[in-house]
Design a protein that fits this description.
single chain; alpha/beta; three-stranded mixed beta sheet; 392 residues; globular; six-stranded parallel beta sheet; Rossmann fold; Dehydroquinate synthase-like, alpha domain; 2 domains
Length: 392
C-alpha cells in the first residue's frame, strides 16, 4: 500500500453484539432520551413473530410506541413520507427499526427526514443531508445488508423506475443491536442471498481502489466467517453458531465498505433492481462471480488471497491461475446455497442491457472498481449472467 496515501475511518454508531442484546432495546431508547418510539418493522418479520420480543421489551418497560410496517422489499420513497407523517402526528422522538435492509433503510430515512425539510430524494448522493435526525436503534433480522452500521439508505420510486442512495453520517444508527437470535427463523433462500450480499460487500471493498488497512482487516474476517458458516446457516438455520458467524460477517463487511464503497456488482444491481423485480441480494449474488472474473487482472494478488480464504490450494500455481480459483470457489458457493440461475428469469431483457450498463456506469461504485470498465464491458458482464449462474 502506498505510504503517500491518507485515509480516514469514522464510526458514529455504537455496536452491541451478542445473543440476547435485543432485550435491552428500551434501555437504549431511554439512553438516547427518547420518550415515544416509532417502531418500524418489516411486515414479513412482523407476521413471523420475530418482532414480538422487541414489542414485549418496549411494553414491559412502559415505553410508548407506534407501529409502522408499511415497508416494501425495496423501500419506497412513498413509505418514507408516510412514516414521517405518522411519527410527527404521534409525537415520536426516536425510531426503532427491526428487519432486513429494507426496514432498516426505511427507519434510518424516516429518522433523518423528521429533522430535515423536503423529500428524501432531495438528498440523493453523499453528504447532502444538512441536519442530524432523531435517534435510531437498529436491530437487523438478516445477515447481509449491514444497514445497521452503514451511512447509506437505498430508496426506490417504482413508478418512475428509479433507485438512489442517500449517504450521510447522519444516516447512521445511533445504536446497532445485533442479536443472532433474531436471525434464527430466516428462511434458507433469504439466508443464502443475504449471505452472498455480505460476501460481496467484503470482497468488493477488499479489492477496490480505495481499500485501506482497517477496511481490509474487516473484509478478510468477514470472508473467513462466510467461508466457515454460510453453507451451515442455509441448511441448518437453527445452528446458533452459524447464525452468530454470519451476522458478525455482515457487520464486519458493512464496516469495511462504509469508507471504501464497493464495485461493479453493486453498480449494476442498482439499475437492474430499479427496473426489474429482482431482490437486491439475489442480483448481487448472480453478478458477483462474473464481476470477479472481469476484475481479476486489476488485483491478482488479492484474488489469490480470496481463493485461499475459501480453502483453495494455490501452491505451485501461477499468480493468474491461483487468482482464477477465487472465481471457481465463489461460483461453487453460490451453487451450493441455491442462488437462482441467471438474470433472465427475473425478466431482464437483452435489448435493455446497454441502457442498464449506461445507468450502472453513472453510479459511485464504478470509479473505485479495481478495473476501469467501458459501457460495453458492463453490458458484457450482464450478458454472461443472463442464462445461468456461471455465465458460460
Amino acid at each position: 500500500m502506498d505510504y503517500n496515501r491518507t485515509f480516514s475511518y469514522e464510526l458514529p454508531t455504537k455496536i452491541e453484539f451478542g445473543v440476547g442484546v435485543s432485550e435491552r432495546v428500551a434501555e437504549r431508547v431511554a439512553g438516547c432520551r427518547g420518550g415515544r418510539v416509532l417502531l418500524v418493522v418489516d411486515p414479513g418479520v412482523l407476521d413471523a413473530g420475530v418482532a414480538d420480543k422487541i414489542v414485549d421489551t418496549l411494553e414491559n418497560a412502559s415505553m410508548p410506541y407506534v407501529l409502522f410496517s408499511d415497508i416494501e422489499p425495496e423501500p419506497e420513497a412513498r413509505s418514507i413520507v408516510d412514516g414521517v407523517e405518522l411519527a410527527r402526528s404521534e409525537g415520536c422522538d426516536a425510531v426503532v427499526g427491526v428487519g432486513g435492509g429494507s426496514a432498516l433503510d426505511s427507519a434510518k430515512a424516516i429518522a433523518v427526514m423528521l429533522e430535515n425539510e423536503g423529500h428524501i430524494r432531495d438528498y440523493a448522493g453523499q453528504n447532502l443531508v444538512p441536519n442530524p435526525g432523531v435517534p435510531i436503534i437498529a436491530l437487523p433480522t438478516t445477515a447481509g445488508t449491514g444497514s445497521e452500521v452503514t451511512i447509506w439508505s437505498v430508496i426506490s420510486e417504482k413508478e418512475e423506475k428509479v433507485k438512489y442512495g442517500v449517504g450521510s453520517p447522519y444516516m447512521t444508527a445511533t445504536v446497532a443491536m445485533c442479536d443472532p437470535e433474531l436471525t434464527l427463523t430466516l428462511p434458507p433462500h433469504i439466508t443464502a442471498s443475504t449471505g452472498m450480499d455480505a460476501l460481496a460487500h467484503a470482497l468488493e471493498s477488499y479489492v477496490n481502489k480505495t481499500t485501506q488497512p482497517i477496511s481490509e482487516a474487516l473484509s478478510i474476517r468477514a470472508m473467513e466467517l462466510v467461508a466457515r458458516s454460510l453453507r451451515t446457516a442455509v441448511v441448518a438455520g437453527e445452528n446458533l453458531q452459524a447464525r452468530w458467524d454470519m451476522l458478525a460477517a455482515s457487520l464486519a463487511a458493512a464496516l469495511a465498505f462504509n469508507p471504501t464503497r464497493l464495485g461493479l456488482a453493486h453498480a449494476l444491481v442498482m439499475p437492474i433492481g430499479a427496473k426489474y423485480k429482482i431482490p437486491h441480494s439475489v442480483g448481487v449474488a448472480i453478478l458477483l462471480p462474473e464481476v470477479m472474473h472481469y476484475n481479476l487482472i486489476g488485483n491478482l494478488e488479492k484474488f489469490v488471497t480470496i481463493a485461499r480464504i475459501f480453502g483453495e490450494n494455490t501452491e505451485g500455481l501461477s499468480l493468474r491461475d491461483a487468482a482464477e480459483l477465487s472465481v471457481k470457489t465463489i461460483r461453487q458457493l453460490s451453487e451450493d446455497v441455491g442462488i437462482p440461475d441467471g438474470l433472465a428469469r427475473y425478466g431482464v431483457e437483452e435489448e435493455r442491457l446497454h441502457d442498464l450498463a449506461k445507468a450502472g456506469m453513472a453510479t459511485g461504485n464504478v470509479p473505485v472498481n479495481p478495473r476501469a470498465p467501458t459501457i460495453d464491458d458492463l453490458e458484457g458482464i450482464m450478458r454472461r449472467c443472463m442464462a445461468n449462474a456461471d455465465g458460460r
